[in-house]
Amino acid sequence: KDRYVVIGNPVTHSKSPAIHAAFAAQTGQQMDYQRLLAPLDGFAASVRAFRAQGGLGANVTVPFKLEACALATRLTPRAAAAGAVNTLQFSDTQILGDNTDGIGLVTDIVQNAGVALRGKRILLLGAGGAARGAVLPMLEQQPAMLVIANRTVSKAQELQQLASADAAAQAVRTVVTACRFEEIPGHFDVIINATSASLQDAVPMLPAGVMDGRTLAYDMMYGAQPTAFLRFAAQHGAQCRDGLGMLVEQAAEAFALWRGVRPDTAGVLQQLRAGLQ
Ligand code: ATR
């Protein structure tokens, strides 16, 4: 069987093996997908060893996405824009690095939630790796405006500069700005929480009026219970969605890259949802 892994540290709780097993069963692909725990100082060596054993590809998770980007000998444009890699594909001559997180987010919003981004006002909360990975795939949808807000405003400004350059390179006319949470201007159609505040059960302090019943509030995090951000959004009447669909869609994109077939994600997402308790 063709071999794939998800490499991380920790990696025990990764749902990727279950997701890829479901995709493989559904599409009749003969593949084996396991977890690979790499030592914190041993990512490249773990990849090398897995490749030497005939491994064909890997998903990369915390904390190795930047190292994976450095290890790749060729990057897709969206991986280069993200500065991070979550998907590796090995061949005899190269290591291709891709980043499917952002397109996973966009697919979950546009196709699964049925919310178009074209012409919309989007607010991105956070300016770390998760936020950066989402920028190029979102710009490709040609929103009217992308506001990047972050606790540390200098990081939002840095990301805004990268995003503006991406928009110019794509000839996309989206207006990209950066600010602090308390300076966020006006009302938004879509608000994406790419901060890790939910891990501390915290919510970025947002001004009144940024969201209402017309807003889709999306948290990249997920869990059995709604995150603090989604509880806050629900109180303001927003439509709420967590990141479980993004997880499944990023996996589907990696699977399509490796196997050349696109799996159907709806049933897998339903199964995962039922399994969160
Ligand atoms: P990731 O790869 O998940 O994006 P990261 O690069 O460490 O992780 O980025 C974490 C993001 O969450 C940052 O935008 C961070 O804000 P700062 O740049 O100001 O540190 C944000 N964040 C983390 N905890 C937060 C909190 N309690 N409130 C608001 N923002 C928070």
UniProtKB/TrEMBL annotation:
Q: Which GO terms describe its cellular component?
A: cytosol
Which keywords does UniProt give here?
Answer: Amino-acid biosynthesis, Aromatic amino acid biosynthesis, NADP, Oxidoreductase
The residues listed in the UniProt record as binding shikimate, with positions renumbered to this chain, are: 14-16, 61, 86, 101, 222, 250
The segment(s) forming the Shikimate dehydrogenase substrate binding N-terminal domain are 6-88
The UniProt catalytic activity note for this protein reads:
shikimate + NADP(+) = 3-dehydroshikimate + NADPH + H(+)
This protein's source sits in the domain of life called: Bacteria
Gene Ontology biological process: amino acid biosynthetic process; aromatic amino acid family biosynthetic process; chorismate biosynthetic process; shikimate metabolic process
List residues of the Quinate/shikimate 5-dehydrogenase/glutamyl-tRNA reductase domain.
115-198
One GO molecular function term of this record is: NADP binding
Active-site residues are 65
Q: What is its EC number?
A: 1.1.1.25
Residues annotated as domain SDH C-terminal:
243-273
Question: What is its EC class?
Answer: oxidoreductase
Which NCBIfam families does this one have? aroE (TIGR00507), PRK00258.1-2 (NF001310)
Protein task: Involved in the biosynthesis of the chorismate, which leads to the biosynthesis of aromatic amino acids. Catalyzes the reversible NADPH linked reduction of 3-dehydroshikimate (DHSA) to yield shikimate (SA).
Q: Which family does it belong to?
A: Belongs to the shikimate dehydrogenase family.
Protein name (Swiss-Prot/TrEMBL): Shikimate dehydrogenase (NADP(+))
